[in-house]
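Limitations

Structures in this collection are predictions, not experimental determinations, and the ligand pose is part of the prediction. Treat each record accordingly. The example that follows, with iron/sulfur cluster as the small molecule, is included so readers can see exactly what is and is not provided: the inputs are given verbatim, and the output is the predicted complex.
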Amino acid sequence: MISNLFTPGVLGPLDLRNRSIRSAAFEGMSPDHLVSDDLIAYHRSVAAGGVGMTTVAYAAVSQSGLSFDHQLWIRQEAVPGMRRLTHAVHREGAAAAIQIGHCGLMAKKSVSGGVCLAPSGKFNLYGPTWPRAMKREEIRSVVTDFGKAVHLAREAGFDAVEVHAGHGYLISQFLSPYTNSRKDDYGGSFENRSRFMLEVIREVTAAAGKELAVVVKMNLRDGFSGGMEMDESVQVASLLEAEGVHGLVLSGGFVSKAPMYVMRGRMPVGVMADSLTKDRWMKPALKYFGNLLMKPEPFSEGYFLEDALQIRKVVNLPLIYVGGLVSLEKIDEVLSRGFEFIQIARALINDPAFINKLKSGEITRSACQHSNYCIAVMYSGKMKCFQHEENLTEKWRNRRTSGDQRTSGPAKTSGQAD
Ligand SMILES: Cc1cc2nc3c(=O)[nH]c(=O)nc-3n(C[C@H](O)[C@H](O)[C@H](O)COP(=O)(O)O)c2cc1C
Ligand code: SF4
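Predicted complex:
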């Protein structure tokens, strides 16, 4: 039987050649916050590897929304590079999307223009930052920035924008009762906490016009007690459908509280500490307390599926499943249970040709071991699978040869590091 994965699909105004989308996974390939040749080559390789669409990750809509040195910032100066990227992707037969967002309390002051904005001024240990509660005019200004970013993405030839409303970034910080303790009409009730998201989405859909697809990446759950749960995420999905967005990417987790809920497994904290070359004092803290801060979460294939099915019951728009897809069997199951598209991050970091290899029958499962090494090194600006890394420690070399699949074993405690 031919897999549904390889059949064409419709996402708003877009026809995609198949049901696979490269999920937004931060590349760290944007020195000076501009598109580099490496970024273009990477997305070209993913497009050539067979995906229906590839997504450029985590582009900031304004300087205040930047949290990394090598992060793309959408502005007029960036458009020529963005255009070269979309051309390269289109030449390989895939569509190009760009994820747009604002990091809010995860801002790195040295790149964000000295500011760190959030719904409320609550200390964030994970920055570490002490953000300032946004004034109403700042809220309006960021909403407008989203619209401007969409106009520039259109000018650069993108086919879709993905609004990042999950993972504990600014929109998600407004939605979550954990980070939003405002007393005005942007805080308190669910209606108030979702106001900022709706204002952004209205700005984005107006700017997108008829030819650009608009998808939203949202949380099913924030992943900790006191965060957003399913009772509110079903309402978020319904609100977004009513606004006319073309698809929802269903994820979960919160970078400043439950980061491993997004990817599952455990973070190789030693590798992460070593990659944070500029933040010297953080190295020992991470090595010793990293697994306490980034509590490991058990991995299972398709770990968001049961929660995502709850959303399927309440909306009719196309749903895009993401989270732990590593085999054709699970992809087929997801597509047969009411999801129109699937997104994949790590299996494509492991091998950009994953989709073509599934199609040809060369493989049925990714070699990705969900080790999360690629995330740990992301902070040094070189997103890479450890299986393709040349300079590995002995421990990781052994892991490569042994195919160690440790993913949900007992959590390491402080004092131990990879
Ligand atoms: C290296 C890396 C970077 C990521 N960066 C982002 C990001 O910038 N934006 C985002 O929404 N998700 C990001 N993610 C999460 C992925 O998009 C995806 O939701 C998650 O990895 C689960 O999918 P997977 O099991 O196919 O990897 C990242 C994941 C990885 C592995
Ligand atoms: S480093 Fe490689 S094996 Fe580990 S999660 Fe990333 S892609 Fe998978």
